[in-house]
Design brief:
433 residues; 79% helix; transmembrane helix; DUF4153 domain-containing protein; mainly alpha; transmembrane; membrane; single chain
């Protein structure tokens, strides 16, 4: 009896490494296990189950789960009292970390330049570590890496004028974001579906955080105005304390709301993607024509080249978000056409930026900034080419849009590798200059 139970536990443990669709199929007759899976990750479970539902149509258990997953409650799910206390503790911790410079008399520019990523990302990583019940080796790896990163960036030579410090600080945020993605993926980091869900979560997280900040801004203006009416000026105290706490807590509260209430933005996100993708495509076409008409030159204008690369990153984000939202849904020729057009235009923008960077390197040599931008542009170009080829196949009816999402998901580790190189190796190569 003991051996059978142990074997069952081992099988159950190994199931965590499967894609969720396979896990659901394997344990469809075990309602308790399905419930645990659902509570562990409601969004991924819902997407996976609804893909499998046509196979089980007519089955009583499948029908009940289908009704449950498609039902959208009118009230928010705030979770248990324990979860709310943890949310409050996490928000206060983020607020405390944001206030470290003023509490301990540390120079704000020095502190935030190095540590701003540690205010929120480790807390979100801890949340998904707990939510996904990660195994101990992965927990040790995640938080050991975070601790090593914290030490590295803070033993950086004490100078505020260093290109490698700025690059390391920026890419460290992206590296911490990658670790968050690893925690989000659970015990199966190789599941491409989980990686795509992570991109979808990021889009919904940005939307929810934005809504919270807008509401917080309105409440702040209202509060300050009320006190001003009775002759009390609280602006300095309010922005130094309450506003800082709110800014630090907003991403954490947004993550909790999105995870606990998938229905909150699961209709808003696709709508935003569908509205903004064609608008961005039109704007980019007009913008490129305007560049030709005005004779603006990214080859010699450094500020224009910087803006050009920021534009490239923004459009890449829109493409990835739109594909993450559209993957797995019914094929739409208009959506595919818009995404294909965006990808082609973005390759053109990338080509202009890349040629401008190569021109500047040939004229003035390698610097930390030029090398970092060159590597990032080459990396993005490779991803865009793969995405565009796959979108052509989708438009030709040879594959599904979900295959584009798989290409993006499979490419994500390369971005992580590049953040590691820029964050930890560039300072050594360029001697912290």
């Amino acid at each position: 009896m003991t051996d059978t139970r142990n074997t069952s536990d081992e099988n159950r443990s190994s199931d965590k490494a499967r894609p969720m669709t396979d896990d659901i199929r394997a344990h469809f007759d075990d309602p308790a296990y399905l419930e645990k899976m659902y509570r562990r990750d409601k969004v991924a479970f819902r997407d996976s189950f609804l893909k499998l539902y046509p196979e089980w149509k007519g089955n009583l258990l499948a029908e009940s789960w289908n009704e449950r997953l498609r039902y959208e409650g009118e009230e928010l799910n705030w979770g248990t009292s324990t979860e709310l206390w943890l949310l409050l503790a996490a928000s206060l911790l983020a607020g405390f970390l944001a206030k470290i410079p003023s509490i301990f008399g540390i120079d704000e520019e020095y502190f935030y330049q190095r540590n701003i990523g540690f205010i929120v990302f480790p807390i979100l990583t801890a949340y998904f570590t707990w939510k996904n019940n990660l195994r101990q080796p992965r927990i040790l790896f995640l938080f050991g890496t975070i601790a090593a990163s914290l030490i590295f960036i803070n033993v950086f030579p004490k100078t505020l004028k260093s290109d490698t410090l700025v690059l390391s600080g920026i890419h460290l945020i992206l590296f911490l974001w990658s670790l968050l993605g690893l925690a989000f993926s659970g015990n199966n980091a190789f599941d491409l579906g989980r990686r795509l869900n992570f991109l979808r979560y990021n889009g919904e997280w940005v939307i929810m955080t934005g809504l919270i900040l807008i509401a917080g801004g309105l409440m702040s203006a209202f509060t300050i105005g009320l006190f001003e009416l009775i002759g009390i000026r609280i602006e300095k105290f309010y922005f130094d304390n309450v506003a800082v706490l709110g800014l630090a807590a907003a991403p954490i509260v947004a993550t909790y709301l999105v995870s606990s209430n998938p229905q909150l933005v699961n209709k808003v996100s696709p709508a935003i993607a569908r509205i903004f993708s064609p608008l961005v495509l039109i704007i980019l076409v007009v913008y490129l024509i305007a560049i030709i008409g005005t004779g603006k030159n990214p080859y010699t204008d450094r500020e224009f080249l910087i803006f050009f690369n920021l534009l490239l990153l923004a459009v890449i984000g829109i493409i990835f978000f739109s594909i993450a939202e559209s993957a797995g849904k019914q094929k739409n020729r208009l959506t595919t056409g818009v995404l294909l057009g965006l990808s082609v235009i973005t390759i053109l923008i990338n080509g202009i930026a890349l040629s401008a960077i190569l021109f500047r390197i040939s004229e003035w040599g390698f610097t930390p900034n030029r090398t970092a931008v060159l590597g990032a542009n080459l990396l993005i170009l490779g991803n865009l080419v793969l995405v565009t080829i796959r979108l052509f196949r989708v438009a030709a009816g040879k594959t599904e849009l979900s295959s584009v999402g798989k290409v993006i998901s499979a490419y994500l580790p390369l971005y992580t590798l590049w953040t590691i190189i820029v964050t930890f190796i560039f300072p050594l190569i360029f001697q912290f200059k």
